[in-house]
Design a protein that fits this description.
By secondary structure, the protein is an alpha/beta fold. It contains 11 helices and 12 strands. The chain binds iron/sulfur cluster.
C-alpha cells in the first residue's frame, strides 16, 4: 500500500488513498511538500488494490482522503471514487486536495460525475487573493481563477480554502488581507483554514520580509474583519501559534463567521496586548519561523 505523505489535519482518521504522486505544478516558492517527488499518476490497478486492502491498514472510518496534491487530474478519477464508494459503503465523506487551476479548467460534467461517484469535499490552496502576491510566490493562479474555481466547485462540493498569512510580507500585508477576504466573499467556501508563512523551502528565503508577532496578529485581524460571508474560520495549525520560551500562549482562533467573528477579534486584540506587555517586560516573543529555526516545532 502506498500512502500520501501529507494530509490535512481534519483527515487524521480518514482512509488515505494515494492517487497521484507529488504535485504536477511544484513551483510555489513557499512550498516544500513534494519537491523531491517526481510527479506521476499511479496505475489504476495499484490504486484499486490499495482500496481492497484498506481493512488491513486502517481502523474503520467514515471518511477517506485522496492524495497527493491534485488527484482530480488522474485520468480514471471518477472510476476510482466510484470503486471506493462501492467497496467501502461506510464512507460518508470523500475528500481530496485540488489545484485551483485544475478546477477552473475541468469540464463541469466531470465535477458532476465526481459528485455522483461520491466525492464530497475539496481542499484548495488559495494562499492569497492578491494577484501581486500570487505572482511573487509563483502560485501559478490569479484571483480570477480562484473565484471561478471556487464558484464552480461550490455547486457540487464542500470546500476548504487555505490561506497563508504573511505571504505578502510586511510590504504587502494589508493588500494581501483585503484581497484574500474579497475572494473569500465571492467564493463563500465552507471552511477557511489559515497557515502562517513559515520558511521551510530555501527558495522562499528573503522573497518577502517576515511579519513580527504583532504584524501577524494585525494581518489576521484584518482578514477576519474583511470576511462578510458565512463560513467556518480556523487557524488550526501550529504555524499560527505564538510562543515564549516557556511554551505557546496563543493557539489561534476558531469559529463560525458571522456568529463568532467578534469573539475571534476579541481574542486577537487581547493577544496583541499580551505581546506588547511581554515585549515591554523584556520577554522574547517567538513566531513559527523562530521556533522552526530553533528546531522546536516541525511542520
Ligand atoms: S502549494 Fe500546492 S500547488 Fe503549490 S507546489 Fe505545493 S502542492 Fe503544488
Amino acid at each position: 500500500m502506498d500512502f500520501p505523505p501529507f494530509r490535512p489535519p481534519s483527515e487524521a482518521y480518514s482512509y488515505l488513498i494515494r492517487v497521484v504522486r507529488g504535485c504536477n505544478w511544484n513551483k510555489c516558492l513557499f512550498c516544500s511538500m513534494y519537491k523531491s517527488i517526481r510527479f506521476e499518476q499511479r496505475s489504476k490497478e495499484e490504486i484499486l488494490k490499495d482500496i481492497d486492502d484498506i481493512p488491513k491498514y486502517f481502523p474503520r472510518s467514515k471518511s477517506a482522503f485522496l492524495g497527493d496534491s491534485n488527484p482530480l487530474i488522474h485520468k480514471d478519477i471518477v472510476e476510482i471514487v466510484r470503486y471506493l464508494k462501492a467497496k467501502r459503503p461506510e464512507v460518508e465523506r470523500i475528500t481530496a486536495y485540488a489545484r485551483i487551476k485544475t478546477i477552473a479548467n475541468i469540464p463541469e460534467e466531470k465535477l458532476e460525475s465526481l459528485k455522483s461517484a461520491g466525492l464530497t469535499r475539496l481542499h484548495m490552496g488559495l494562499e492569497s487573493g492578491d494577484d501581486e502576491v500570487l505572482k511573487i510566490v509563483q502560485k501559478g493562479i490569479t484571483s480570477e481563477d480562484a473565484i471561478k474555481a471556487g464558484k464552480r466547485a461550490g455547486k457540487y462540493f464542500e470546500m476548504t480554502y487555505y490561506v497563508i498569512t504573511g505571504l505578502g510580507g510586511v510590504e504587502r500585508s494589508e493588500r494581501h488581507a483585503i484581497n484574500t477576504a474579497r475572494v473569500i466573499n465571492e467564493v463563500k467556501p465552507t471552511f477557511v483554514r489559515v497557515r502562517n508563512l513559515t520558511i521551510t523551502n530555501p527558495e522562499m528565503e528573503g522573497v518577502v520580509k517576515l511579519l513580527s508577532a504583532e504584524e501577524q496578529l494585525e494581518e489576521l485581524r484584518k482578514l477576519i474583519e474583511g470576511i462578510k460571508v458565512e463560513t467556518y474560520f480556523t487557524t488550526d495549525h501550529v504555524s499560527n501559534y505564538l510562543f515564549t520560551k516557556r511554551g505557546a500562549f496563543f493557539t489561534g482562533v476558531h469559529g463560525r463567521i458571522p456568529e463568532e467573528k467578534d469573539e475571534m477579534l476579541r481574542i486577537i486584540e487581547d493577544t496583541l496586548e499580551t505581546v506588547r506587555a511581554l515585549k515591554k517586560s523584556g520577554v522574547e516573543v517567538l513566531t513559527s519561523n523562530d521556533m522552526f529555526r530553533l528546531g522546536l516545532i516541525t511542520l
